[in-house]
Structures are given as structure tokens and as C-alpha cells.
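note to self: the first set is below, dont mix up w the second
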Amino acid sequence: MTTEKKSYALPIIMMIALFGMISFVTNLAAPMGQVLKEQFGASNFQGLLGNAANFIAYAVMGIPGGMLLQRIGYKKTALIAIAIGFLGVFIQFLSGHSSETAAFSIYLLGAFVAGFSMCLLNTVVNPMLNTLGGGGNKGNQLIQVGGSFNSVMATLTPALVGILIGEATKANIKDVFPVLYIAMGVFALVFLVLLAVKIPEPHVAQSKEPMKQLMTGALKYKHFILGAIAIFVYVGVEVGTPGVMIYWLSDNPEVGKTIAGFVAGTYWFLMLVGRLIGASVGSKISSKLMLSVTSAVGLLLIFLTIFSSTDTLVSLPVLQRSALGALSFGMAQVPINAMFIVLVGLCTSIMWGSIFNLAVEGLGKYTAAASGIFMVLVCGGGILPAIQGFVADKAGYISSYWVIVIGLAYILFYALAGSRIRNNEIQTQ
């Protein structure tokens, strides 16, 4: 048993590295869009299209990704995903050598191609880490470790781009080339290492059924269907919670755009802290308990956000960049509502791993197909924030957080009741 675990160390490291690359490339879209917006005069809507392209790619590629995983296995799917990721970043690199009229379109194409890669990588790394951990609490713990590294990259990527481009109004896409070189270099390295590493593929090996039949089989499990909806809701909550806060604080003359960015960065930093905590206790505390507690606390924090006065200011320690470019913590005066929103990052941090772990529990050979369905529903990260933004336009920023309340309430329901596995379902497998 000890030898088997030792032989899995390198595959686990590679999967965790890919978890980080998902965040690195995804979080590269926003600052890249800002650079092109300033350099070529793109609108705010156009600047956000890079993020939208990533989510659209998930909706398009989720189920085909599950099919690919079932047909050719974890390793080959990962290698294809890495190659596509390299291509997507390279296309974005080419946008820096294009004419002003074509640069934005080429960048957007690169973001879309990179989104395909991120979807495929997500399809692989989640079930793979769960499998390598043996499922259950150990599988959840490995997913939390991967999520922690994902958060590290989410925190560092915007800061690294910010250091390279300096003032956004003087940004040039060529300033971001070092980040693109890093991304392409990591993809190339992981591709070569993974090519030489043996990856255990138990579920793929035992399942030779058509993908349609496997997907139909996965959809027979009520706890999986409710879990897939929970993933859709969760990604929307994770993205919308800090996203609308940035717009709100940016429009506040006492706060401004710079501090708004610092506060949002602190939200993502707290997600890192939460995932590290989740990884450390994941083998001792069940996914059900972790999800129940965090969704309940998240609900409380959002209620405090909605019902607290925006006139009450607090000093919030936020992650920021000094004049020399170094990352550090500093104090910022913000409405108390912003503090409650930032603290939600501790709650959302462990939800993905917990929901995934609960939803695929007992699915066995249907896990790969289930993962593909999950990836389609990641598009919730583009849909729910848009709904929240619409509510903000009509009723105000703070009132828009009722959308988050509904989302967290559903996640709490899933943790307490929706994730329960019926004995008759297990027997049919």
C-alpha cells in the first residue's frame, strides 16, 4: 500500500500543477482585456469578453470533454488539454504582433481556445485527484490542496501583470509577454513530464459503454443532478460576490478603483487561506459538514452585507502593491459591507471540492461522464453574475446581493439534504 501511494506522488504533483495553470490562464484574461482596452480603445464590454470566452468554452466543451476522457483516458486527455492551452496562449501572444484592427479579435480567439483547454483540464484534474486520494475525505483533501495552489495563482497572476504593465493607461500588450512566456513554458514542461508518467485510470479502464449511456447513467443519481446544479450556482456565487463589489467600490468616491482592486484581491487571498485550511482538515471533516458550515456562514455574512449601513466605515487590511512593486498588506477605509463580502472568500474557498466530492460519491464508472456535465455548468460563472449585474442596475449594488443569498441558500440545501445518496441508487450500479 505504501509503495502504491509513493508511485502516485508525481501524478498528484502534475495534477496540482495543472490546477494552478487553470487559474493562471483564466485570470490572465481580465488584465489582458484591460491592456487591450487601454491600448486600442476597446469598450468595457469588449474588455470583459475574454472572461466571457472562457465560460462559453466550458459550456461548449464540457460534455465533449467528458466523452474524450471516457474514450482515451486521463493521461491522453490531459496531454491534449495542455497542447490546446499552449496554443491558446500562443495565439494571445500573436495578438501583440498584429495590427490594431486585428489585435483584439486575435486575443479573443486565443482566450476562447485557452478556455477549451481549461475546461478539459478541469475535467481531468478533479476526478483524477479524487481517484488518487481514494475518494471520500482523502479525495476531498487532495482537491482542496489543488484548489489552494489554484488560489495562489489567482492571487499572483493579476499582481504580476500589474507589475509588468505599470500604469494601466500606458499599458501595451508587449509588456505582458513575460507572463505569456511563463505560461507557455509551464505547459511545455508539464506536457513532457506527464508524457513520461504513468497515470492510474481505474474508472476509464472498467468502462467501455457508450458515452451517451454513461451520461444517462450518471443522471439517474439524484444527488449528482442536484450537485451539478450546485456547481452552476457556486461558480456564479464565487465570481459575482467580488465582481459586483469592485463596481460598487469603484463608483464610491471615498474608495475608488485602486482600493476596489485591492479589496477584491484580498477576497481571492482569503480563498487561498480557506483552501489551505480545508486541505489541512479535509481528511478529518466530511465534505457534508464543511459545505454545511461554510454555506451557512456565507449566508450570514451576505445578510450582514445587505442590512448594514454603507455609511459605517472600517479599516480593512487588504493585499496591495507598494510603489516598488512588492506585495504587502495595508489598511484601507471601506464600508463595513465590503468587509463582510471579503470574508465570504473564506467560505467559497472549499465549496468546489466539497460539492464535487459529494456529487460523484458512489458514481464509479460514471465519474468521467459526470465530470463532463459538471464542466458545462461552470458557465454559471458567466450567467449568475450577469443576473446580479442586472439587479444592480435596477435596484442598486447592495440589493443585488439577494441573488447571492438565493445561491448560498441552495448550496446549504444541497449540503444538508440534496447530497444524500439513496441506497437503491448504489445497488443499481
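second set (the one i keep forgetting abt)
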Amino acid sequence: MPRKRSAGALPTLLFALLVAKTASGSDLLQVYREALTYDAQYAAARSTAEAGREKQPQALAGLLPAISASGNSYWNDSRFDSRSSSSIVPNVTVSTKSRYNSNAYGVNLTQPLFRWQNFVQYDQSKLLVMQTEANFAQAGQDLILRVAQAYFDVLVAEENLRAVQANKTAIAQQLEQAKKNFEVGTATITDTYESQSRFDLATAQEIAADNELEVKRYSLRVLIGKDPGELNRLRAKAVLDPPQPAGMDPWVEAAERDSFVVQAQEAAAEAANKAVEISRAGHYPTLDLVANYNQSNGPGQMGLGEIDTTTRQIGVQLNIPIFQGGAVNSRTREAIARRDAERASLDNVRRNAALGARQSYLGVVNGLAEVKALDAALVSSLSSLESNRLGYEVGVRINIDVLNAENQVYVTRRDLARARFNTLLAQLKLKAAVGALSEVDLERVNALLEPP
């Protein structure tokens, strides 16, 4: 028979679960999804994209019929004076007054049949929407990189603080040992002074490292709107993969072709070319289908009765521009200059995309080599530290040798952590350079992390 749970057991269990949940680490993917809904920069990009998508329906309106209605109602007070100049009845004045209401209303329809600038504007609007979508896609990639950068900065700062604290602890132990050796006469006071100096320096480094960690955590908080808590850390044995394909040229070619920045500028350059056609269309005639329906009523002659008038019209209206003061030619020259500027910007964007791909590729390749070298250096530094400690105990090494070896371990651990995270970030930047960075890539990096 199962035992009955006590009344206080359930609240205790819920509290334990809450504490466990609070203490659990936040992973990279979770932080990214929170940034999607909170980050102000990405929210602005989303709204800008929504506004840019409206360019196409606005341009389409220039090809569709325009219908308008109008109406009026007037209250009239009129007076008619007639003076006779006849010799039979001289100087006789006849006055007639009338007060009446007149009304009119109408409906007008205009359907463009040939307006070349409207057709070109519609084609241009498609390019502007393409530019908008490419810019928004780039904003999404930038958010991934900003989240990853802020997340890794916190992890590097935490690793730096842990290394500083471990170094401080080791120096404190060495300081205590130096004091004991001095007391028993096996060491000079110099060893104590050296250890104390290193300990004071380590204390200052700890304060600086703690301050840097707080700054990095706040930078991450700006992206997600809350304290992220403990973050998942990179596994000690995590394997960082080399770029695929392994050569640099395919990445450079893809960046020049597929980068979202390049796509956006290509659309902008083509849209500027369409703007030249729109300006030149100021010389072209326009042809519209026009239909009108008008209804009016008012009094007849001398206020006798009412007259209702109905007018129906349908036809075509041709407008041929002849001279507009040179404005069309000026706007065309302006559009040509802007088109040339956009084309030059496209060349610059492609070159920068290629440069970015090269830098990111080298960042990954050289980062992997640096991580491998620092892994080996850490093993050597730990071995050197143990040897110096043993040598100090038997009298073949002095205190400063041990302190230097401990500091070398600290520096190597810090550099190794930074190199690993820089390599991961370079991998993400390389995918972004070719317009291929997505949440899937963030999931792969997230799989390399583990709870603290």
C-alpha cells in the first residue's frame, strides 16, 4: 500500500523544481529565439521589410482603373432687375427674386491604356521588394552573429575569470609556502615578496575580469531583455569541424554571387536602371480610357420649373508632352548618374563580400590550427608547472620559476578558450558571407555546448 504524501511535501517539491529550473543553463538556441522577439534592431528591420513590401501594390495601382465621385449642393439667392427704356413707358424697373436649391453629382473613371512609366514602375517595384527581402534576410543573419558574439563573449569572460581565480589560488598557496619556508629558514624573504607581488597582481586581475564579465552579461541582456542566467559551456572535448568545401575559392565565388548584401545591391542597381526608363518616359505620350457620368438639377429660365440634366461620356484621352522646361532631360541625367553610382556600389559590395569570405575562411582554418597548438601548449604548461613545483620542493628551482609556470598555465587556458570561440564565430561568419547562415547552423554549434 503506497504511503500517503505529507501536506508539506508538495510545496517543497515544487520549490525544488523551481530552483532546479532557475539554476539550469540557457543554451545558445534558446537565447537566439528570445532575441528574435525582443531585439530592437531586428524588430526595426522587420517593420522596414513590411513597409518595403508595400512598394509593389502601390505600383500596381498605376495600372488599375481610378474611380472618383463628386457632388455638390448649393442654396442660391438671386435677383434680376430689368429697366425699360421705351418711350411709351419710360424708366420702369421690373425686379424678379428667386431662391432655389441646385444639386449635382458625378462619377469619373480613368483606365490607363498606355503610360509607359507606370509599367516600368511596376517592374521596378518588384526589384525594390527583392531588395527589401534581401536586406531583411541579412538582418536575420546579423542577429544570429550578434547573439553568438554576445554569448561567446560571456563564456570567454567566464573562462577568463575562472583562470584568474585559479591562478590566484595557486599563487596564494605558493605565498603561504614561501612564508613557511622563510620561517624555518629554508628560503629568503625575497620569495615571500615575489609571491605577495604576484598575489596582489592576481587580485587586481580578478577585479578586472569580474567587471568584464558583468559588462558582457549586460550586453547579452540587451539582446534578450533579461538576465540569461548560467549559460551552457563548450564541452572540453568538442570537435570543431573544418570548412566544407575545403578550398577558399568556392567560398569566395559563392559570396560574390549569393551574399544577401550583394543580392540587395544587385536589386538596387537594377531598380536604378528602371528609374532611368521612368524619367525618359516623361517624353512619351499617354493614352487613357475615360468615362464620366454626371447628374444635375436646378430651376429653369426665369425660375419656371426645374431642369434635370444627365450627361454620360466615354472615350479616350491622349496627352502628348511637347515642352516641360527641360525638367524631363534633367531628371533623366540625374537618374543616369544615380544608376552609375549604384553600379559602382555593387562592385564595391562584391569586393567586400569576397574579402569577408576570405577573412572568415582563414579565421576558421587558422583558428583550428591555433586551437590544436594551444591544446598541446596547455599540456606542456601543466607539465612544466608540475616540474617547477617539484624542483622548488627539492631546491633546484626558485619561487619565481613556479610563479611564472603558474601564470603560463593561466595565459594558455585563456588563449585556448578565446581561440575556440573565435573559431566557432568564424564558422558562422563564413556561412553568413555566402548567404547560407540559418538557425540550423546555430543548432550545430549549440550541440557542442553542455550545461554548467
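remember for set 2: The chain has two domains: 26-64+115-284+328-450, 68-113+285-320.
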